[in-house]
Fold:
Amino acid sequence: MNAWVAALGFLVFGPLLGALLAGIDRRLTARLQARQGPPLLQPVYDVLKLLEKDTLVVTPLQGLYLWLFLFFMIGAGLILFTGGDLLLSLFALTVSGIFLCLAAESTNSPYSHLGASRELMLMMAYEPMLLVAALGFYLTNDSFRVSVITEAAPWQPLQLLGILVGFLFVLTIKLRKSPFDLSTSHHGHQELVKGLTTDFSGHHLALVEIGHWYENAILLAWLYLFFAPWGPWLAIPIALILFFLEVLVDNTHARLTWSHTLKASWWVTLLLGTTNLLLLAWWVR
Amino acid sequence: MWSIALLILLPLAASIAVLRAPDPQTRDLWVQRWSIALIAVTLLFGAGCWMGFTDQTLYAIPHWLQTALDGFFDLVGLILAGTLLYLCRRIKWNEWYIPALILTQTGILFVAEAAATHPQVEHLFYVDPFSVLMALIIGVVGGLIALHAVPYMRDYHRHAPEVPDRRTGFYAAILVFLSAMFGVVFTNHIHWLFVFWEITTLCSFWLIAYPNTEEALRNAYRALGYNLIGGLAFAAAILWLAAGSGPYTRELDRLVGAGQLALLPAVLIAVAGLAKSAQLPFSSWLLGAMVAPTPVSALLHSSTMVKAGVFVLVKLAPVFQGTLAGLFLGLIGGLTFVLTSLVAVNQRNAKRVLAYSTIANLGLIAMCAAVGTAEALWAAILLILFHALAKALLFLGVGSAEHLIGSRDIEDMESLVYRRPELAAMLLIGMLGMFLAPFGMLLSKYTSFQAFLAMDLLPGEGALLAVILAFGSGPTLFFWSKWMGRLVARPHRLPSIPNAPPRAEQLVLGVLTALTALSCALFPLIELGFAMPYTQQLAGLGLIPAHAMAIPWETVGIMSLMLGGLFILPLAFWLKPPLYIESDPYLSGANVEGESYRGAMGAERLATNQGYYLIGFFDERRLMQTGIIGALGLGVLMLGSSL
Amino acid sequence: MSFLKRSPWILHYAATSCNGCDIELLACLTPIYDLERFGIINTGNPKHADILLVTGSVNEESRRVLENLYHQMPEPKAVVAIGACALSGGIFRPAYNVYGGIDQVIPVDVYVPGCAARPEAIIDGVVQALALLDARAKAHKRRGQVSIESP
Ligand code: SF4
Structure:
């Protein structure tokens, strides 16, 4: 019963939450630049507008890949929010990311292709850390199930401190923020044009945006999981603060090259994630 | 019992029949008919076993027959050594070690045979759920590959007129290979196992050398040499079992049952397994083997040869479980997994990508076998199955594509989705099957993670293996997706390919595609029918800790839903295509007719893309050298810790 | 009301401008004018854009680019010409390679005069284009052909 409510809640409110996060993000960014910024619901307006427009395609198949992207994204979220398996949810998230890349690759335009290749590179960079984070949760709770993880011991955030820092690092990549916004830029007049999404328009772009809202909600939920044992009144604000810390990072850093990104994130995974995991395994036994 | 004999003898009889075929047409027909018969018989056998038994069954045979067969296998062993020595006539001076290995090996066996008394062998054959599953893989996938080989080789000789046509021997070798593989998975007599083992080595040598070029010969010798190193270790294990202080036996089930007493011989046999499954430091032979025609690659990679290697590793898993030697074995697998996944990113040659990915996956299987708990074995067994299906599909698909487009370069397969949709769809399903949810490989990975973290020999060792798996997953993702990206890219006015692959090839590919998808949908059946009974049986014998391991039904449900989505969405898309307006890709507004653009000086250029290979970032040579040194070190540690 | 009014994304193309108008246009995005208040984003990509802002006159080199960009924008869309050059060719008009204003090549909806046009004028032009877009969105039926054949 509860699971159904959660599933429905995620389906309906997940994107709203994600959109709101994106809206706050844009406003915060504007404020950091001494501007007023758009209304909070601007991302929603954008998508509604995109739905009013025609859809230009380079190849009709790109729509198929985008639908698959959204399908697996929602799947990942459903697993997570119904208290299901964290690792499985992560796998679904990966699949969805790959379909987004395929959609961009299928247009075969240089900018999309560049964006897709870089996105793949970023996936290669952050995948180990995300897996390590899931493994960390498993070690502390002896289960991948989210419903179990939320009832972990109160010192879980301390046990997973290194992994948390590593996770925040790759979260920057996952949210496509500077210094790691290599695959698609928020400001579309750079060498990438719009990277991954260059050749999507109208409905297709709306699909991508909605997918990203769901992704925002999912990533916020991951952050929440770290602090879940402290109860929602503490965990939600902390997760939100950490989430918006990424906006600060975004606005204070210039973009890195892919090789730096790859090296940096693997080193972080190795030094913070792995060390934490090994210590944890030693401690748990 | 008799069904085992049938399975071993059927391909053997087929190969004799093929050798005696009067003319090429009849020969081709016979190869196809015998392969179909083989597939049918294996399926019947598998279905019978699936319904019929729950436990391991050992078989003895009448004494006179056993004596006769013993003599026969000794004879075969001698002939084998003689043949191998004869084959060495074309070696170069720096390959002197090959005959030396053969002679030492034969010498060791001779010493073991010459001992006054021999351990009694009671049971000669056995059937258990794992070996039945292996037999299914060998029979069905191997049979399909043989079917595919007939039209393929016809094209092959048309494309490469300089290669002498020795197809009769080729088909016969494939069939003997399959027969020997059946022997490997069913025999309980370690000597016989060794003979079958060396027959596969011999067959692979002959098949790799098929193109008869200098390169093919050298690579074939390398394969031979490396596998003989493994064979030497195997022979040493046999000697130890006959004369050492460990268990005094020649039976596989006793060896496994002896537990950690049998560590040294098990480690020695594991070395043979590592060599055969092309783990570091032996990996390079499998890459060299790429010179052979594609069916050979498919055969070596999916159903035979390398699978024989991991088969014995999984069989011996109870011995390794919870030992230091097992940990080192797992680390060798892990090292192989990470390094070869990284190197695969560098590769442009489709077959080399597949080869490195095979080695990586076998590394993962070796890791699971080394951990040896119920969960890990479960994962290993399913990995073997899923890998066999997807890899056979990919190799044969790449082979067919190569004949159509005349290249095995990934970049040349650009936009295959538009140029030959059915072939591209098959390749895509094979690739998805290799690394993505909801396909089986991922489920096995999932279980491996759980199994690794549940290890408790040393603090943190399981976490270490799990991290290795996590790090290997990144590059795996990268190189497969990059390839898929090339396949789905919209064509730059590349011509569509007019002629389809031959009907028989299409049929085989179609069947393999269906199997890859079906094995995921029906995986609970496979799990309940083969993987679970096997681990339960081992746990029942007290060889591995019992573990109430079950994939929750919820997980299975979610996987099925995803799988459903993956097939239903394209269908829905095809039935009711949405509204679109076609346009050209964005080229900064400089487009001229589609993908060309007006560049500097008003020249028209075609906008082209290529995948990332990160050549400057990972260096194949350096990584592999590091890997070989590391694996050698780990191997020494493994041997040392087993003493 | 159409949501186009709430989130007009712009594409800016400098056909043959002296860069004076471009600087003024970019000034609109700065904190003083902050166009993002109205949901306006400079996308730099025709496929995402709703309003095409063109500065400068059209010459032989920029003619095709302008046409391409215009055609790669999905309907409904609007075009705003900014500055004397874009309106008529301006001081470049007598040049041998110049066609004149951009309405020689693509249909223009709003003309913003000035040399250079002031940011306030540009914002005013965009707002007028919004009203046009709104009307167009109401009249607009989604078009498109159905096909999944290979190109
Ligand atoms: S109108 Fe004036 S400022 Fe604007 S581009 Fe033309 S010359 Fe420059």
The mean pLDDT of chain B is 85. DSSP finds 24 helices and six strands in chain B. The pocket of iron/sulfur cluster is lined by residues C 17-18, 20-21, 55-56, 83-85, 90-91, 115-116 (CB under 6 Å). Residues 321-578+610-643 of chain B form one domain.
